[in-house]
Amino acid sequence: MADKSAQVQSISDAFRVRPEDFDLAEVDPGATPVGPRSKREAAADMAVIGQELDRLQEALYAEGTGGGVRRVLLVLQGMDTSGKGGTIRHVAGLVNPQGLRIASFKKPTRTELRHDFLWRVRRQVPQPGYIGVFDRSHYEDVLVARVDNLVPSTEWRRRYRQINAFEAELAEQGVTTVKCFLHISPERQRERLIARLEDPLKHWKYNPGDLEVRAKFSRYQLAYHDALVKCSTPVAPWYAVPSDRKWYRNWVVAQLLLEALRDLAPEYPQPSYDPAVELARLQEADPLR
Amino acid sequence: MADKSAQVQSISDAFRVRPEDFDLAEVDPGATPVGPRSKREAAADMAVIGQELDRLQEALYAEGTGGGVRRVLLVLQGMDTSGKGGTIRHVAGLVNPQGLRIASFKKPTRTELRHDFLWRVRRQVPQPGYIGVFDRSHYEDVLVARVDNLVPSTEWRRRYRQINAFEAELAEQGVTTVKCFLHISPERQRERLIARLEDPLKHWKYNPGDLEVRAKFSRYQLAYHDALVKCSTPVAPWYAVPSDRKWYRNWVVAQLLLEALRDLAPEYPQPSYDPAVELARLQEADPLR
Q1: What are the C-alpha distances in Å from A152 to residues A24, A147, A148, B145?
Q2: Subunit contact B101:A102, Cβ cutoff 8 A
Q3: Is residue B178 a part of any domain in this protein?
Q4: For position B173, which CATH number holds?
Q5: Closest Cβ opposite residue A102 in set B97, B104, B135
Q6: Is residue B289 part of a domain?
Q7: Using one digit for the tens of pLDDT, what is the confidence trace for B43-76?
Q8: Is the dihedral of CA A13, A14, A19, A20 positive or negative?
Q9: Does A111 reside within a domain?
C-alpha cells in the first residue's frame, strides 16, 4: 500500500474498500501509508482536525435546526481490542457532545430478536444535524451471526442485500455513512488481551469468551472480508483502517470523519426572520429593560 | 449567599435548594460565592476536575459491565441563553463520550403527546454505568406547560408529585439525579440575545418566539421557583447555579457532577474469572500463536 501513497488524493481514497480488487488478507494492520509518521505528529494533527471538525459540526447542527436533513453516521466495527472504545474516546471526543449521538449494539435482547435485524438499528439512526456513532452495528448480523451459525446461511447471505438497501435508503434521507473496519493483527490482539489480564483496572474489559472468539479469528476475517466487499457501496463505503497503532487508527478515523464533513459542506441556515427587526424589538420594545 | 461560604462543606451544600427556606428571587445569578475567583482559575480547576471525572466515570462504566445498576443523570434546565448547550459542551465534554448519553427534549411530538408526560422521559433514562444528560426535561411540563396554559392547572399541579414519585423510583433503581437550574438575569439574557442577533454565525440560535418567552420572564421565574421548591428532594435535589458568568456556571456544574460521582464511589467489579488461568490459556494454548 505504501507505494500507492504518491497518487493518493485523500485519506478516504487511501483506505476505501474497492470491491473489485479488495483483499483483506493484503491489508497490513500495522501500515501507516499516508499521514503522520509518529504518535507525536499525529497528536499535533489531531488538535488541528479537532478545530475544523468543531466548526463543521456546528454548521451541520445549525443546518439541522433550519430544516436541513443531512447528518453523518460513523460505523465502527472490529475484533475485540481493535479499539472501538478508544476511537470513540479520541475521535468522537473531538466534537461537541451536544451534536453527537452514540449507540452501542450489544448481543440482541429478546425484544430485539423478535424483530427484523435492522429494527433496533433504525431506531438509532442520528437525527438531522447530528453526528451518530455506532459502536458495532447491523454488521454483527453478518459477522457473529455467520461465524456462530446463529441463523441459517440463506438468512445471513440475504442480509448483505438488505443492508445495502437500508444504507441506500439512509443516503436518500440525507445520512452520510462512513464505515470503519478497525483492522488489527492476531499478534496485536494477543498483546492487548495480555495487557488486560495483567492490569486489574482492565480486568472488566475481558471475559473468557474473548478467547473463544479469538480462536475463530480467521473465520471472522473471512466474514469481514465478505461484508466489506459486498457492502462497500458508493453511498456507504467501507474503510479498512490499519489499527495496530492506536495513534494511527485514531488519526485515520478522525480524518475520514473530517473529509465526510468537508464534502457535505454544511451551511448555516438563512434566518427565517429579519435580524435588524428583532434587534429593534429588543432594543426599543423590551418589556424587561 | 457569600457570607455563608465559610461554613460551606461542598459545592452541593452551597447550591442545593432547601425547600424550607429557598427563595429564587434572592439568588444572585451573578454571584460567585465559592470556588474560583476568575475565569483563569476556573480553567485550571476544570482540567483537574476532568481528570478525576474521567477516572470515576470509567469505574462507573466498569461497575455497570459487572452487573452494577448505578448511573448518574444530570438534568439541565434554564431560560433561553442560560447556557444549557454551553454546559454540555464544556462539562459533558470533559468525560468519555462512550459512557455518556445525552437526550434533548424539544416541543413534544404528536406521538409523545398521546402518552403520559413522563413516557418520553423514561425512555431516555441512562442505562447502568452511564452518565446521562438531559437538555431540558420533564420539568418543561411544569414550566412552559404552566406559563402557557398548555394544560389545566389541576393537571400541572398534580405533576410535581408525579415527578417526585418518578425520581424516587429512579433513585431506587440506582440513578443518582443531579438537577441544575442555570439561573441568569434578564439583563444578561438581553445581552446574549443581542449577541446572537449581531453575529450571523449565531442567527440560527435565535427565533422570534424567544422574545415572547422573554416577555414572560417573571412568570417563568415563579414557575421555576415552585418547581425547585416542590421537587428538590433528598434523593433528587435541585441546585440553583448562578449562570451569568459562563466560566462559573461550567465550573459549578462540573463540580456538582464530580461530587455526585465521588459520593457514589463506583468500584471496578471483581472479575468473574481467574486472570491467572486466562493468562495461562492465552500463553500456552493460544491457537493463533
Answers
A1: 25, 11, 10, 52
A2: yes
A3: yes
A4: 3.40.50.300
A5: B97
A6: no
A7: 999 999 999 999 999 999 999 999 999 999 999 9
A8: positive
A9: yes
